[in-house]
């Protein structure tokens, strides 16, 4: 009998019951006041009058009135550069212990985002809250005795001046609590390997020695790792080597486009739980099985604001118009897209994280990520968010009975007008014209703006088919394999031209 697992499951169940009801709106009001109080004597806090804001009867409104929106370039050029010149108390008391390196999905140059010790504790606590939420999922007791394979970036962080640098998944993994180390796979030695292919090779070698109950990581890289394990050990599916695999914690990108190809690697269905861990903090996680939406972490060092997603508010570089209105959690509505704005214990203030979200349940503060502000496809008025593109792709997979784990597209101007030019990453043999028709019809039915655009300047859809490996090699050339690296779903014409040149060279 799995005694230890029963004890752990019992503790989780009891803790979850004792935690009581939460009030996300009240929690957010307290978080904002705590952030302002702690940062009041920083250079940023003095410049924007945090002490005066705290005296207001309407602190959230006064805060939004006094402090402008910042994207990464804005806050880095105006404030964070001082941290690299040795100044202290810039946007948060003291100096950050870490900088999270993030190339995201938009280029080779890494962002350097401050990560304070307080944020590390907040991320750890959010992780514990997610573990406690497992009481809502009916996992067997022995699940809590199995290993958890976390495939992130290297934990071998770079020492620089008085801090360490690395991707947030590597920083988080290097700070896992001691009680979790017995469950954590691939273990510290393998996790420190910087080269992704070498790290996967070691995982493949050790795979038969592990009893894995859970996986965690970005879908594309998890899939590649699983395929290598299956191939190396002559398996039909991953359950032949890890029979107790019960759950996959997805993150970084929408899981939808990977669902079919991921399930093809399984011997039986497993539970997929979404998380939202960004370089700027642990934002949300799926807390119950009845929905695939994620619950915002509203009491843990992050204050959220929401700007209604209107193309008129988004500037060409993806930043926000300073006149764009912001809403608090008490003012949002379900079923509308919002640009997510955060202020945190790492000294990000009214920060455009780059994602758009939709509330599925305001009372529970549950959201879905709907896209990226820079990847919103609005050429000739089509107004398509990434989630609409993902939905169209899933319909294509179903209609043609194929797996398409990767894609990218651009609204490209040809001689006869604009087309949405899709590149599909699949090993299936498909008719591009048939695929184009399915995508076009799906988007017409799902989006009235797209349908209108198709009757005017948008001529249609073009489809090009390449192997999924082309996408992985593109990431390897432009960024790096593994870790937090994500494929851009929508490209501008200049970047798309580079992509097409790259594809031609791979042919």
TrEMBL record:
> Which InterPro entries does the UniProt entry name for this protein?
GH3 (IPR004993), GH3_C (IPR055378), GH3_M (IPR055377)
One function term, GO molecular function aspect:
acid-amino acid ligase activity
Q: Where is the GH3 middle domain?
A: 297-363
Q: Among the entry's GO cellular component annotations, what is one? A: cytoplasm
Superkingdom per UniProt: Bacteria
- Fetch the Pfam families from UniProt: GH3, GH3_C, GH3_M
Q: Which residues form a coiled coil?
A: none
Can you give the residue ranges of the GH3 C-terminal domain?
389-494
PANTHER family of this UniProt entry? GH3 DOMAIN-CONTAINING PROTEIN
* Protein name listed in UniProt: GH3 auxin-responsive promoter
What is the phylogenetic placement of the source species in the record?
Answer: Bacteria, Pseudomonadati, Bacteroidota, Flavobacteriia, Flavobacteriales
């Amino acid at each position: 009998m799995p005694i230890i697992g029963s004890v752990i499951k019992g503790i989780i169940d009891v803790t979850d019951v004792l935690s009581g009801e939460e009030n996300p709106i009240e929690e957010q009001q307290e978080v904002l006041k705590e952030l302002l109080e702690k940062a009041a004597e920083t250079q940023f806090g003095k410049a924007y009058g945090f002490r005066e804001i705290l005296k207001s009867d309407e602190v959230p409104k006064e805060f939004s009135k006094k402090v402008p929106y910042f994207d990464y370039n804005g806050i880095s050029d105006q404030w964070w550069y001082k941290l690299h010149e040795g100044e202290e108390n810039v946007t948060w008391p003291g100096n950050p212990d870490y900088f999270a390196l993030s190339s995201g999905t938009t280029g080779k140059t890494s962002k350097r985002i401050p990560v304070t010790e307080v944020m590390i504790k907040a991320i750890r606590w959010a992780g514990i809250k997610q573990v406690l939420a497992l009481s809502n999922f009916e996992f067997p007791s022995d699940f809590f005795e199995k290993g958890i394979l976390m495939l992130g970036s290297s934990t071998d962080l770079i020492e620089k001046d008085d801090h360490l640098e690395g991707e947030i998944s590597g920083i988080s993994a290097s700070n896992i609590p001691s009680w979790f180390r017995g469950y954590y796979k691939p273990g510290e030695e393998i996790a420190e390997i910087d080269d992704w292919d070498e790290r996967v090779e070691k995982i493949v070698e050790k795979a038969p020695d592990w009893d894995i109950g859970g996986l965690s990581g970005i879908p594309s890289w998890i899939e590649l790792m699983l395929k290598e394990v299956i191939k190396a050990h002559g398996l039909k599916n991953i359950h032949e080597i890890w029979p107790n695999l019960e759950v996959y914690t997805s993150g970084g990108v929408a899981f939808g486009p990977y669902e079919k190809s991921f399930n093809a690697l399984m011997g039986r269905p497993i539970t997929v739980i979404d998380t939202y861990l960004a370089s700027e903090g642990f934002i949300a996680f799926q807390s119950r099985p009845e929905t695939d939406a994620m619950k915002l972490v509203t009491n843990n060092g992050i204050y959220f604001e929401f700007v209604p997603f209107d193309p008129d508010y988004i500037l060409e570089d993806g930043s926000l118009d300073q006149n764009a209105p912001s809403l608090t959690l008490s003012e949002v509505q379900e079923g509308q897209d919002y640009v997510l704005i955060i202020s945190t214990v790492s000294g990000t203030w009214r920060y455009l994280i780059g994602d758009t979200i939709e509330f599925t349940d305001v009372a529970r503060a549950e959201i879905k990520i709907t896209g990226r502000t820079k990847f919103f496809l609005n050429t000739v008025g089509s107004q398509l968010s990434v989630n609409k593109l993902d939905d169209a792709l899933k319909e294509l997979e179903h209609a043609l009975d194929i797996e398409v784990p990767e894609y990218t597209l651009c609204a490209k101007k040809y001689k006869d007008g604009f087309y949405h030019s899709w590149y599909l990453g699949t090993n299936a043999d498909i008719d591009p014209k048939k695929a184009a028709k399915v995508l076009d019809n799906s988007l017409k039915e799902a989006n009235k703006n797209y349908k209108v655009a198709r009757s005017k300047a948008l001529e249609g859809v073009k489809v090009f088919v390449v192997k999924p490996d082309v996408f992985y090699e593109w990431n390897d050339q432009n960024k790096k394999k593994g870790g937090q690296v994500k494929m851009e779903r929508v490209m501008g014409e200049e970047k798309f031209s580079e992509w097409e040149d790259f594809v031609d060279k791979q042919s």
